[in-house]
Amino acid sequence: MPSAAVPIALGPKPTPLLEQAITAGGGEVAELGDARALIWDGGTAGFPERIPENVEWVQLFSAGVEDWFASEVFARNPDVVFTSAAGAFSRSVAEHALMLLLAGVRYLPEHLRARDWRQTEFFPHVGTLRGATVTIAGAGGIGRELITLLHPLGPRIIAVNRSGTPVSAPGVVKTVPAHRISEIWPETDHVVVAAPATPDTRHLIGKSELAQLKPTSWVINIARGSLIDTDALVQALRDGTLGGAGLDVTDPEPLPDGHPLWNLPNAIITPHDSNPPHLRTTAFADHVRENVARFVSGHDLVARVDTAAGY
Amino acid sequence: MPSAAVPIALGPKPTPLLEQAITAGGGEVAELGDARALIWDGGTAGFPERIPENVEWVQLFSAGVEDWFASEVFARNPDVVFTSAAGAFSRSVAEHALMLLLAGVRYLPEHLRARDWRQTEFFPHVGTLRGATVTIAGAGGIGRELITLLHPLGPRIIAVNRSGTPVSAPGVVKTVPAHRISEIWPETDHVVVAAPATPDTRHLIGKSELAQLKPTSWVINIARGSLIDTDALVQALRDGTLGGAGLDVTDPEPLPDGHPLWNLPNAIITPHDSNPPHLRTTAFADHVRENVARFVSGHDLVARVDTAAGY
Question: What is the pTM of this model?
Fold first, then answer.
């Protein structure tokens, strides 16, 4: 136990939940001029022009820090350690992806439409993740969290990342570099799209990829709509060459009224709500408590921004 | 590696899947008169009147062995080791329970009814298992398997079993004996019913239990319909005092056409198909391969029937 609570500032507007997180981590809320750290629960607008010298560490609210680089906050404060909320927001999205995949594989949409006991009709359609090959296209924060959730269900997991550097986690049978992703479609049962949206990943799942999947395969997208060719997906879902799609993100987004995806029986649409504001708030508070505890005890902080490398 | 494959008989009718499982485990299919073990893929009808002396072990297809006790097969063959398929069939049911719970907590039924992008409307209703208190009423094979699946999602798990003997598994914050189950309703967010149907467990979840749960609570039943008071459940779902129910089993079962549960928007009914025949077949083959491998190498067999204790 530290002999005295560490003074930590909270801005732009203190909330009871974050005050509690600071206290629980071993800090106490203080004015910026007296604080050794700053928890910033907002965007770049209104952020202090220059951080006072007494502040050693700043915790930001966002997972991605592109805006913060653009605003030159890091450049103006070279002696301050910045941490993002990377990781804190991955868990809810990974949980959502697991829900979509399980609901698809176990034939939930058709069950929810039934108004009578169709046991023998449904029996052959109830699948399992046990022994199924699940490809995680994009093994970043969300992808890695999802691997942790999937493993106890017993699938063979194929991880795809940019470099092909092996993802060492239980359940992962191989890691494939993105430029060789075409090799793994024939053995893939289900795919979860969790990669960032870049020019390279646009339509990562298109007509030819969908053609190599199975009539029992589910495609889950919790990343960005542009990673899937929507027209090709609609066609595959209509033709029954694909089992189904669970989409938290769409292209276009929001999905317009009357779009065919709304009426396909094997499409599950959730309107980009895998990480709703109320869960973001509690996840950030957990992250703050964890990082304050580490700061107080002198341990390495989680999600430290590499201001030289640019992420 | 054994020097020669161990002879194992397969009845009543050999299937390629089970022949493969025997071979993969290090055995080879043989006639009953030459075999050291018998894999029995059927019921009590047609089972050999007396097992020849050369047979040391019999693997049965069923998880429960009440019928086998009743038929006196164990009594007639006191020198034979019997194993059941207990455990082999738990995994699919536990996966189904997880699916129902996640679908409920993340508000999937309403999402599936939507035909437009209702993001801000849905945001507050998308919940998480992270930090939620999940009570597993019945910590037998299915319950313990479910605990393994739930743990990475970060809930506080309360296990309830007959004796109260602590269930030592990651994520379990406490174990409560069945006779003290009433103590844990106030702190329970969601409950999964996984206990056997006995006179004691009839209406385990009734009016007063439901009244102590929350308007966001989901009740999942993958055990037997009689453990929940259906009328009280329908009332709680109608009144909105309960979040929802995911039921693979019902009372009455099959649920008759026109029953109110079919039309409640916060009820998910799956017609007792959490462990469909095709998954049972592959799960049994996995179990046979595992037990043959153990038999061949002289290790303890899984799911050995205690013919003296009666289970």
Answer: 0.91
